[in-house]
């Protein structure tokens, strides 16, 4: 196995500071878990941003660096202006909305491109400094779309992979970006470009044809004398670990408490980052519609929506939060009583055990993004149901819908249809719930995050290296 250099905007760690000092702890996310094994075994490093450490004292910073080095992480520091323009600006106010089809949310003036470009170049410089011949480089996600080409210019012989964790939109959407050609050329610096679904691969191929006149033959495209491969690698989760968590006695005790509190009620669950792509307002209105048209459900249904604060420095996220707050208030005002409220809205992060307990306690899980590259929450819910119960209601616009066809698939723009699906889920006979959940679980367990890492890296390792440049005599 060659040494693996992983590159992502965020390092897979969280820096915590309290009265006892600073500590660097590993994150629990899917990417971090899936790549931990290959990262440690290969003896490589992970390069990325450790988050805002500007308020730490110099000795605290030194301690963070030492702890990061122990975890084989190489930090890149971002200035306040870079955070605002590269991360919040171009990454999250241009590329994020564009790839999720929210083209109207993009600022009128494209002011942050230069900083995005510069930070991508800085990432590439840092990676090149860490590189040793024979290493494999794996770059992750939309914040770093230019890194593969910057790396190719610095390391013509290197093996470089890139994975796009969010949707790749239709070429009709993508080509509205002023810097569309640079971005696509940026990706073409890689030997292998991975997406979650075949639809995203198809959109990317059409974009290459429309913008650069490049034709994809099966899964390959020729660019500047090199062959670039494209592929669909649907990301999975650490299914075994979620299943184990969901069987722990402490988690089962929490499940019992959730259920006891609502013995007469059915529990409906939503778990998301608070992001406007997640479709929370329409989901809330669908719950409201069911209560409106079927009075028998009033007082018998408890909807818990867990929302983890995200990108709070970006204005659209603040506005979205207000919208959600207002809707929750409206529905509870209309359908609550002195004994209970229909919507329990929790704006905070939960640990994996708490999440597993909620997943296992839920009768119905609502995963209804208007667009989502994959959506791992849907898979976590299935993994946490060794009891083979619970119904998943899933948006057709989540990448996960390609794999999880035995969920109740809904159009998240069709509120009435979602209210129907919720009712169907609540009334579903146990036998049908079990049959569906068995199939969903088999898929999630077989195609887990370890399968994903293996299949991407095996394909990358099998790509022929770029031919050496022949200098004219
Ligand atoms: P995205 O990558 O857009 O956030 P995913 O569903 O693919 O969406 O992944 C979200 C991850 O964040 C999941 O692993 C999920 O467990 C975690 N997560 C979501 N909501 C919360 C929360 N309230 N607290 C803690 N973790 C959360
Ligand atoms: C999505 C993106 C990731 C990103 C994550 C959290 O999953 O694909 O690249 O890291 O959201 O967002 P944040 O902006 O907090 O890193």
TrEMBL record:
Parts of the chain that traverse the membrane: none
The enzyme's E.C. designation: 2.4.1.15
Reactions that this protein is recorded to catalyse: ADP-alpha-D-glucose + sn-glycerol 3-phosphate = 2-O-(alpha-D-glucopyranosyl)-sn-glycerol 3-phosphate + ADP + H(+); D-glucose 6-phosphate + UDP-alpha-D-glucose = alpha,alpha-trehalose 6-phosphate + UDP + H(+)
One of the GO BP terms on file: trehalose biosynthetic process
Gene Ontology MF term list: alpha,alpha-trehalose-phosphate synthase (UDP-forming) activity; glucosylglycerol-phosphate synthase activity; trehalose-phosphatase activity
Cellular component GO terms held in the UniProt record: cytosol
Recorded metabolic or biological pathway in which this protein acts: Glycan biosynthesis; trehalose biosynthesis; Glycan metabolism; glucosylglycerol biosynthesis
Keywords, ordered alphabetically: Glycosyltransferase, Transferase
Record flagged with keyword Transferase: yes
Subunit-level organization: Homotetramer.
Family indicated by similarity: In the C-terminal section; belongs to the trehalose phosphatase family. Belongs to the glycosyltransferase 20 family.
Function: Involved in salt tolerance by producing GG-phosphate from ADP-glucose and glycerol-3-phosphate (G3P), an intermediate in the synthesis of the osmolyte glucosylglycerol (GG).
Protein name (Swiss-Prot/TrEMBL): Alpha,alpha-trehalose-phosphate synthase
Residues of the full protein shown: 1 to 473 of 723
């Amino acid at each position: 196995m060659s040494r693996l250099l992983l590159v992502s905007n965020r390092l897979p760690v969280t820096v915590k500071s309290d009265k006892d000092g600073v500590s660097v702890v590993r994150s629990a996310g899917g990417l971090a878990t899936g790549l931990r094994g290959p990262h440690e075994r290969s003896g490589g490093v992970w390069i990325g941003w450790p988050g805002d450490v500007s308020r730490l004292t110099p000795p605290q910073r030194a301690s963070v660096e030492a702890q990061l080095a122990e975890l084989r992480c190489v930090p890149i520091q971002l200035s306040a202006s870079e955070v605002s323009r590269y991360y919040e600006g171009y990454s999250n106010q241009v590329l994020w909305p564009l790839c999720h089809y929210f083209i109207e949310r993009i600022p009128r003036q494209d002011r942050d491109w230069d900083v995005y470009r510069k930070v991508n170049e800085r990432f590439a410089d840092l990676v090149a400094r860490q590189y040793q011949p024979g290493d494999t480089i794996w770059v992750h996600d939309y914040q770093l779309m230019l890194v593969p080409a910057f790396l190719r210019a610095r390391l013509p012989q290197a093996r470089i992979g890139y994975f796009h964790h969010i949707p790749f939109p239709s070429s009709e959407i993508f080509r509205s970006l002023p810097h569309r050609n640079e971005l696509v050329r940026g990706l073409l610096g890689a030997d292998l470009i991975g997406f979650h679904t075949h639809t995203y691969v198809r959109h990317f191929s059409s974009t290459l044809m429309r913008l650069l006149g490049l034709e994809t033959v099966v899964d390959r495209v020729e660019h500047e004398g090199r062959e670039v491969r494209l592929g669909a690698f649907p990301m999975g989760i650490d299914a075994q670990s979620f299943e184990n968590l969901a069987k722990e006695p402490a988690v089962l005790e929490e499940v019992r408490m959730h259920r006891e509190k609502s013995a007469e009620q059915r529990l409906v669950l939503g778990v998301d980052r608070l992001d406007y792509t997640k479709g929370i307002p329409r989901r809330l209105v669908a719950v409201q519609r069911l209560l409106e048209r079927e009075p028998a459900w009033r007082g018998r249904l408890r909807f818990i929506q867990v929302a983890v604060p995200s990108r709070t420095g970006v204005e659209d996220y603040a506005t979205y939060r207000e919208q959600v707050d207002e809707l929750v208030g409206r529905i509870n005002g209309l359908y609550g009583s002195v004994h209970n409220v229909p919507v329990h809205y929790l704006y905070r992060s939960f640990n994996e055990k708490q999440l597993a307990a909620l997943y296992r306690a839920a009768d119905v899980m609502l995963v209804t993004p208007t667009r989502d590259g994959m959506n791992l929450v849907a898979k976590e819910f299935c993994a946490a149901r060794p009891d083979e119960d619970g119904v998943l209601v899933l948006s057709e616009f989540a990448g996960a819908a390609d794999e999880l066809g035995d969920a109740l698939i809904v159009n998240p723009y069709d509120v009435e249809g979602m209210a129907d699906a919720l009712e169907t889920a609540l009334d579903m006979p146990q036998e049908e719930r079990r049959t569906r959940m068995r199939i969903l679980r088999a898929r999630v367990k077989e195609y887990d995050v370890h399968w994903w890492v293996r299949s991407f890296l095996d394909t990358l390792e099998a790509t022929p290296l770029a031919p050496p440049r022949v200098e004219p005599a």
